[in-house]
Amino acid sequence: MKLVRALIIASHPIPSLAVTAMAALLTAEAAPAGFGAGAIALVALAVLAGQLSVGWSNDARDAERDAASGRVDKPAAVGTISARTLWVGAAAAATASLALAAVLGPVSLAIDAAMTLVAWSYNLGLKSTLWSGATYAIAFGLLPSFSASALPGSPLARWPVTVAAGLLGLGAHFANVLPDLAADARNGVHGLPQRVATRFGPVATRSAALALLLAASVLLLVAASPGRRWAALAGLGCSAVLAVVGAGGRGQLPFLAAIGIAGVNAALFAGGVEALTAGPHLAGALG
C-alpha cells in the first residue's frame, strides 16, 4: 500500500488527471453521433499513461536534488520509493501509452510519440535551459490534435485550439515555478521562467504567466463555435478578473490567480470547444 501511495504522489496526480480529462472530453465533445466510447477511453488511457510516465520520470530524475532541498512531499526524496522503481514505472507507462495510441491509428501514435519525446526531453535536461518553455508549449499544443486524431479520418485540431493549448501549457509552466523561484535559483534550475525572473525580476515572470494564460482565454473565444461562445465569453471575463487580481496581488495570490486562469481555460477546453477540427485528414497520408 505504501508503494502504491508513493507512485500516486510521484505521478503528480492533480495535473495528470486534469490533462487526461481535458483530452478525453475534447474527443467526446467533437465526436459525431454514434461514435464509440471505446476510442474515447483509449484516448484517456493513452494520455493518462503518458502523464504517469512524465511524472515518474520527473521525480526519478530530481530525486537527489529534491532530497538535498528537503522536499518531504516527494516520495523519492524521503526514501518511500527508489528512483530506480520510478524509472521502471516511467518506462512501462510510456510503452503502454504508445501501445494504446497505436490502437487508435498511425496518426495518434505519431502525435503521442512526439508528446512523450518532448515531455521526457524536459525531464532529462531541457528543464534547466532556455528551451523549457518550448517543451510545454509543444506538448500542450499537440494535445488537441491527439484528441482529434481518434475521430473518423484522423483530423488535426484547428489552429486556434492548437495555439490556445500551447499558450495554456506555456502559461502553466510560468505559473508553476512562481512559488519555487528562490529554491530553483539555489538548485541551479535555469529554465525560461527562471531566466526571465533573473533578468527582469520575479514580477516579470508573474506577469508573463498571467498574460500567456489570458491570451489562451482570448483564443478559446476565437475557437468557440456560436453555440458555445457564451461559455468562452464568461471564461474570458473570469480570466480577466483573475489577471487583474493576480497582477496587483502579493504573496501566493498571483500564483493562485494564475492557477485559477489555467483552470478556467482547462474547463473551456473540456466543454467550450465544440468545433475542435476543421483541418486536413492525415490517415491516408500515413497509411
Task: Briefly characterize the structure.
With 287 residues, the protein is an all-alpha fold. 75% of the residues lie in helices and 3% in strands.
Description of the structure:
- The protein has 2 domains: 1-155, Orthogonal Bundle (Tetracycline Repressor, domain 2); 158-278, Four Helix Bundle (Hemerythrin (Met), subunit A), CATH 1.20.120.
- The protein contains 14 helices and 2 strands, in the order ααααααααβααααααβ.
- The chain has helices spanning 2-10, 13-30, 37-61, 63-68, 75-78, 83-104, 106-123, 132-149, 159-177, 181-187, 192-200, 202-223, 229-248, 253-271; strands at residues 155-157, 277-281.
- The longest helix has 25 residues, at 37-61.
CATH class of the largest domain: Mainly Alpha
How many separate domains make up the residues?
2
Strand order of the largest sheet: 1-2
Low-confidence stretches: 279-287
What is the overall pLDDT average? 86
Outline type: globular
The CATH architecture of the largest domain comes to Orthogonal Bundle
Element pattern in H and E: HHHHHHHHEHHHHHHE
Q: Rg, please?
A: 19 Å
Helix content: over 70%
Number of strands: 2
Number of helices: 14
